[in-house]
Known about the structure:
Elements: H1 12-19, E1 34-39, E2 45-52, H2 57-67, H3 81-88, H4 92-104, E3 110-111, E4 117-123, H5 124-131, E5 135-140, E6 146-150, H6 158-161, E7 164-168, E8 177-178, E9 181-182, H7 215-221, H8 225-229, E10 238-243, H9 249-258, E11 268-272, H10 283-296, E12 301-306, H11 313-324, E13 329-332, E14 334-337, H12 359-373, E15 377-381, H13 391-394, E16 410-411, E17 419-425, E18 428-430, E19 438-440, E20 444-445, H14 449-458, E21 477-483, E22 502-507, E23 511-517, E24 524-527, E25 530-533, E26 540-544, E27 549-554, H15 556-574, H16 581-592, E28 600-601, E29 605-606, E30 625-626, H17 628-636
Parallel strand pairs: 10-12, 10-13, 11-12, 13-15, 15-17, 17-25, 20-29
Antiparallel strand pairs: 1-5, 2-4, 2-7, 3-4, 5-6, 8-14, 9-27, 14-16, 17-20, 18-19, 21-24, 22-23, 26-27, 28-30
Amino acid sequence: MSTRLHPRSLACSMALALAGFSATAAAAPQMQASVDMGAANASQSAHVTLVLKLRNRDALAQYIRDTVTPGSPHFQQFLTTGQFASQYGASATDIAKVQAWLRQQGLGSTVMANHLAIRTTGTLRQFETAFRTSIHDYASRSGGRSFRRPVAQPAFPADIANLIATTTGLDTQRTFQSHRIRTLPLSGQHTVLPMLRTAKTGNPTATGIPGSYTVGDVADFYHINPLYQHGITGKGSTVAIVTLSNFDPADATAYWNDIGLTTKPNRITQVHVDGGGAIDGGSGETALDVEQAGGLAPDANIVVYDAPNAGNGFIDAFAQAVSDNTADSISTSWGGPEIYNFAALNVNGASDTDTTDVGDLVAFDEVLMEAAAQGQSVFAASGDSGAYDTVRGLGFGGGPGQFNAPLTVDSPASDPYITAAGGTTVPYTFSVTGAPSASISKESVWGWDYLETYLDANEPTDGGWHQYLYSVGGGGGVSVYWHTPFYQAFTQGIRRSQPKQTLVYNDPASGPYTYLKLPAHFRGRNVPDISLNADPQTGYIVVSSSDGGIISEGGTSFVAPQLNGISALLTQSSGHRVGFWNPQVYLLQNVFGYGAWSPFHAVRAGDNWFYQGKPHYTPSAGIGTLDVANLALFLKGGF
């Protein structure tokens, strides 16, 4: 595969959307020019969350590390929500101060059980007065999307300002992407087949057909079947899906039934957060998440937390899933470029990136630290735009009205307290009509430059699919906000951020404008951690009534819930919650490497348009893929 540091100029995400290959995805309105429409209707109601600062953060980080370190007195001593609140949440005194101030503003409040957040509802007029700012309506110049946001950062009285980490809910500009992509319909390729089981060896629910794979094929790929043969089906465990769209549970039931999988009945519970519950263009994402996690762990309970895709919905849904502390493992397949949390430069190229506007990053980090302390394993999709995470939302090109493509990673996958799920391509053969076939001969990093190379050689004048390929692939790279975590400190292959990375917009009126200048040589958290098959060309069947029935898709959206289901199996196998995966899997890989008895397989081939496969960690596939049966043996024995 070729790795192209300066790819051809393409408006990729627009082309994908027009061609129907990309799932419904939110672009990056906060990066697009917008028009101030004036003061918002002050009588509107809004839900606002005040995220409170952790107490004893350093002690919490050490406690998390101890829970997954054999020999530690706190090994596997996971906290209840109440224990977390009393030790690391805001104190009762501090909470009382904030609530008293809210009452003075005429605002009621509800404190979450983890003592990390206070929720309140009021009119925009009340919040403008309380937060000493005005709130305006805006419309994006491209697409006409409307949203509201404060014209200045909320301000608080001095006696409570140091208690509040950030606020969410007043700004409805930011939305998040679903990390799923449709199969590219090359002529001569397979098509989605009716869901009929085929006679073969291996898992009885597998199809063996690229693009029509099921959870049974995942079990075949990653050595999960031995667990099923020993009665390990996720019994007694609970998985949670955090999502930004509601779905019809009948879709998941139909999927499991149609592939011939017996599952626990009445296993799905739905929790609508912040007025969630809408069936919309993102519903297929939720369906596939439930189908994959629940299919790999057929006897696990499932709780689906959905919230609106705007404002504080995402963080509130995550916080609810963690504070409820019902789920042993949690996954999400939504996210957005980490750098969307950074404030833009005020002067073109005048200074390094301003990272003062990182409220979402801070809020997610606090919630994820709580999850780790409670023993909840959490997984997030790393994105589907290879090493250039902004491309799917913003497009790419050097011409007027286009953005360039800096090396970037996805959030919340970039947080050091979450397991980032990357993507591979499993072996398969492909062709276009009248051209010789080609093959991926071994599991490789997922990057569609292999298709670009093939199509350039075999359909160079077609004007077709090859123009839609950059930079589709498994998300990966180096965070420019989060420092390298302890568990990656001694891992071979960990990288620093690249120099000369900026996000530039070519304004038709004024020429190139530098939005963001990213730190060079930053010792950042590397993404992803673990990868599994995600290439839509070797993708999966999904049942989604909102998308018309049976479809074929891929993306790292599949890997996060697959790891979630695998974690449920490991919970049953080990007899307790697995806890935070990363320190455990990195230690295992550092000590035992790769081989017949290792829980991991290195991904040595392919690339995600920048980072190549290697016989060690790489910011394209992480430490590699899983041998789940071997991992279960290591975890059950406490190493």
